[in-house]
């Protein structure tokens, strides 16, 4: 019984930001738990996640090309998938980018680029939901019972301001609040909405911090777990939030941070 609570067998998940790092690890975890995966990418130049899901894990996987800065492109995602007979029940929004500048020097173009995840998360969530109301069979929308899971990726900077990352903090703060607001309206309609807030994780996005000996030492001194996190640390929490194991969990921002926020 307990194991079946975490099974995603027969489900289909849409994943943004799944080509590397945390997003890739979570895409693998969803597939390992039994889900088929639709990867939303701006192009097909990177097929490594799709190929590994198919060859190593043995699940179905597709790449759907869509530019997440385009409302029209996002509007086309669900119609394209349903035309193939797919009915996604899980949506993982993990696309993200980081730029670091002193606040008073932050370039407008970098601000716009870093703010894109809030826009794309909003659109990837709201556009499918509007279609759900019409189709009643997309992303698991049903009047009663939990059938759908939306998981957004927030950050510790949803709670803290950080240093030289004002655009990222603003974007991730918005994602946290959007998660709570949508949960308030949608959990009664069978869709749970939650977010994951990564701590300091050893990925390409944090290379500058890892290579800065002073910042690295300060970060390590505050992490109770005594180490930077790794993308694999997110496999358990994503399966939990996507599965029946979390059927009464909604509107939460779960920190995966080695104890940072409890310090």
UniProtKB/TrEMBL annotation:
It holds the Pfam family adh_short_C2. GO terms for molecular function: oxidoreductase activity, acting on the CH-OH group of donors, NAD or NADP as acceptor. One of its GO terms (biological process) is secondary metabolite biosynthetic process. Keywords: NADP, Oxidoreductase. This is Unnamed protein product. Belongs to the short-chain dehydrogenases/reductases (SDR) family. It comes from the Eukaryota. InterPro entries: NAD(P)-bd_dom_sf, Sc_DH/Rdtase_CS, SDR_fam. It comes from Aspergillus oryzae (Yellow koji mold).
